[in-house]
Write a sequence for this structure.
């Protein structure tokens, strides 16, 4: 197996989570952005994300994640819902989990560590569902750590370690400010995440969602 | 000289040196008071040269007292620093131990996860198998629809040589793995190992945090020592400058004039003598400490050598009691800046360096196992068995351990040593466990004090007598009679 199981699991979990919310399918960019947002906020739930993303021209990118969906198709856990070979020889593909993939998710989640990752990816996807699948990429672009790298024109791996993770600092700031200035208490994980994504999405043109 | 004598010498010279140092401080304070008093007593009629001398002398006395105070403080801080550095070293060693504990857990986890995922993600996808098998058996290419015997040949070749049908790279073409073990059990084992790894990582993080705070503390103490040393240097410079200036102006040191006063001259003489004595005592203390350190190193190396033979024996006896393997660890710690070599037990993968890390009964029987190991080791060296006396060992035991202790003693006895055990007659399984192995000569090997002692109503009253005899019968020992004069039944 060329691609390590963690990448395959995460992509499979992303497909599983979005299917439960009736999203029709996902493309490779969606996987990158969903899993990047999951990785960024993972310190909130003390999950060690294990792999990094780099600052690429089209946003946060991980090569293994890029390849994982195709491996899942070959393994028989996902299916292609659309495949286009573009003039520039690039393949545009969309993916959906199948029943065999859903069964495998249950099997894999006998491992508690994987169950925790699935629950986390599912929670993030549920909150992203509020804003709609179409602005996921924009949300990932506005993620503060990545956004700062872009402003500074820095390349390479995006450092998401707790001390350099600006998203975690933003969540904490929102929590503290809302509490001290408006006595609004973000006392659940979901409320913190919604406040965070509300803040990120505030400046995004709502017309994109329609 | 042995370790205890050297250790006592270090303490003695250090204490004597400190006492002398306090005495010297007292003398210096007296001098300072005397000079101050004399300076205050000066009047307008005092010649200017005398006033200058007095002022210089007073300032020098003040500087000396301040330097002494700084020296004391630096010496105290250096001791704290040394302790802190040792603590840091010990933390680093403990963190390394955790890293070592992680290695087998990670390896096992990787092996089991690979086994688990081999049933989830195949080495080659199922459709590959379909394409290859159709090619090799039917001579049909499922991709483009071509057919022919040459394709059969190509398929067989690719399969036999383990080459990918698309690019020819090596590929592990294996049939789907047969799951021989219970997948639930495998997942549960992985979960347990993962938890263990997370525990170790959490411990490691805690150590890293403590190490960071120890480093901060060390840096803080070093900074204070640095600042104090700089202050001391400034005071010393001032003192040298003052003396030089006085010599240039007057042609002699300020104190040279004061030698005319017999009391002050005596104080100065005492200070000089105390300086020499303190230096001598501290030198002896340092020499003794060096000798103690050398001896301790030698002791450590002997203990390490002995431990290779002693640990298996200790574990042999201790495990009879604990129900798990138990090792001896040789280590060194520093108390009052003196090194001490010592050994402690380790079981269930935990080092038990402190008394509170084992229960009271574990402490008692680990001690016994250690003595038994030593005796057995001597037996192996000299060929001479010996004897072992223990008093009422069943006293502090839980029910579950009573038989274990009996097994431990029987095992020790099997080496040919004699054991003399006193025991109360009670409901303990300990005696039963011992007597089960004594065979027919149990009476000859028992000194039954009930048989010789004066029995009171505690033993002879009917209801007590019955309970006693019931127990004696179980042990197949002579029964008690209600008539203390009558001969006992056999």
């Amino acid at each position: 197996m060329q691609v390590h199981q963690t990448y395959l699991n995460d992509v499979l979990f992303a497909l599983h989570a979005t299917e439960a919310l009736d999203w029709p399918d996902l493309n490779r960019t969606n996987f990158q952005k969903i899993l990047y947002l999951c990785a960024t906020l993972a310190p909130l739930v003390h999950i060690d994300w294990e792999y990094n993303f780099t600052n690429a021209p089209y946003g946060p990118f991980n090569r293994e994640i890029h390849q994982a969906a195709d491996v899942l198709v070959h393994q028989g856990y996902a299916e292609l819902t659309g495949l286009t070979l573009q003039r520039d020889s690039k393949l545009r593909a969309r993916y959906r989990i199948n029943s065999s993939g859903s069964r495998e998710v249950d099997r894999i989640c006998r491992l508690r560590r994987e169950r925790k990752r699935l629950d986390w990816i599912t929670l993030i996807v549920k909150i992203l569902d509020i804003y709609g699948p179409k602005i996921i990429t924009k949300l990932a672009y506005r993620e503060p750590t990545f956004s700062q790298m872009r402003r500074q024109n820095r390349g390479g791996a995006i450092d998401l370690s707790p001390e350099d993770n600006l998203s975690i600092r933003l969540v904490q700031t929102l929590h503290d400010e809302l509490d001290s200035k408006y006595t609004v208490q973000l006392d659940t994980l979901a409320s913190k995440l919604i406040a965070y994504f509300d803040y990120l999405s505030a400046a995004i043109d709502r017309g994109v969602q329609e | 000289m042995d370790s205890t004598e050297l250790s006592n010498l270090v303490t003695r010279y250090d204490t004597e040196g400190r006492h002398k140092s306090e005495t010297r401080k007292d003398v210096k304070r007296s001098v300072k008071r005397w000079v101050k008093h004399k300076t205050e007593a000066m009047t307008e009629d005092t010649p200017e040269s005398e006033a200058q001398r007095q002022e210089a002398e007073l300032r020098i006395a003040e500087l000396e007292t301040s330097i002494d105070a700084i020296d004391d403080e630096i010496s105290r801080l250096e001791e704290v620093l040394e302790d802190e550095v040792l603590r840091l070293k010990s933390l680093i060693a403990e963190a390394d131990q955790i890293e070592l504990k992680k290695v087998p857990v990670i390896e096992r986890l990787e092996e089991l996860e690979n086994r688990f995922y081999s049933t989830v993600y195949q080495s080659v996808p199922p459709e590959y198998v379909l394409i290859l098998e159709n090619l090799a058996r039917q001579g049909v290419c499922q991709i483009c629809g071509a057919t022919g015997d040459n394709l059969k040949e190509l398929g067989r070749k690719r399969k036999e040589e383990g080459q990918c049908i698309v690019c020819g790279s090596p590929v592990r073409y294996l049939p789907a793995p047969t799951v021989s073990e219970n997948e639930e059990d495998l997942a549960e084992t992985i979960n347990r190992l993962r938890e263990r790894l997370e525990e170790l990582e959490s411990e490691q993080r805690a150590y890293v945090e403590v190490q960071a705070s120890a480093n901060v503390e060390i840096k803080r103490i070093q900074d204070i020592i640095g600042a104090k040393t700089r202050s001391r240097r400034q005071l010393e410079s001032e003192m040298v400058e003052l003396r030089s200036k006085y010599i240039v102006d007057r042609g002699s040191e300020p104190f040279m004039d004061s030698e005319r006063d017999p009391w002050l001259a005596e104080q100065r003489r005492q200070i000089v003598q105390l300086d020499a004595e303190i230096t001598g005592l501290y030198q002896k203390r340092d020499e003794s400490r060096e000798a103690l350190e050398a001896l301790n190193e030698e002791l450590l190396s002997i203990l390490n050598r002995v431990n290779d033979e002693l640990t298996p024996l200790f574990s042999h006896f201790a495990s009879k009691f604990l129900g798990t393997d138990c090792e001896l660890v040789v280590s060194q710690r520093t108390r009052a800046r003196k090194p001490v070599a010592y050994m402690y037990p380790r079981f269930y993968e935990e080092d038990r360096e402190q008394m509170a890390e084992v229960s009271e009964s574990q402490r008692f029987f680990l001690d016994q196992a250690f003595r038994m190991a030593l005796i057995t080791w001597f037996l192996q060296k000299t060929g001479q068995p010996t004897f072992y006396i223990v008093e009422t060992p069943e006293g502090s035991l839980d029910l579950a351990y009573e038989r274990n202790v009996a097994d431990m003693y029987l095992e020790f006895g099997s080496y040919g040593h004699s054991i003399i055990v006193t025991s109360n007659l009670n409901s303990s399984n300990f005696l039963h466990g011992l007597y089960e192995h004594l065979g027919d000569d149990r009476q000859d090997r028992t000194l039954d004090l009930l048989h010789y002692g004066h029995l009171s109503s505690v033993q002879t009253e009917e209801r007590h007598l019955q309970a006693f005899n019931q127990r004696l019968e179980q042990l197949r020992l002579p029964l008690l009679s209600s008539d203390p004069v009558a001969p006992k039944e056999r």
